[in-house]
């Protein structure tokens, strides 16, 4: 099982940008689909984005498409989420996740989360 640690969260004004990072342990990082999810206060956790093992295929939630970009660095076991044009409704705890397979939708490993707060 892969261990995941997120970083890069913080407080930003609406319209601003943040880049989240997720560091993964283990030698099998490139065998995992990686994803980002978020959970706002009082709401269920929701999908944000995922990226295939090779990085060649990505998927986004409609609410973030065109504003967020997911990427990965298989050499350094890292996955990133570049968030631009942030809105107050993007405020949430953001979680990094890993799932087996080329472009999986099942994620079994989760990080602790990093808080993103967007002020209006």
Q: The biggest beta sheet, please?
A: 7 strands, mixed
- From the helix content, strand content and strand pairing, which structural class follows? mainly beta
Strand content: over 45%
Question: Could you say which overall geometry the principal axes of the C-alpha atoms support?
Answer: globular
As residue ranges, the low-confidence spans are none
Q: Please write the string of helix (H) and strand (E) elements.
A: EEEEEEEEEEE
Measured between the Cα atoms of the first and last residue, the distance is 39 Å
Q: Which radius of gyration do the C-alpha atoms yield?
A: 13 Å
Strand segment count? 11
Helix content: under 10%
Number of helices: 0
Give the oligomeric state of the chains in this entry, treating copies of one chain as homo and distinct chains as hetero: single chain
- Mean model confidence by pLDDT: 96
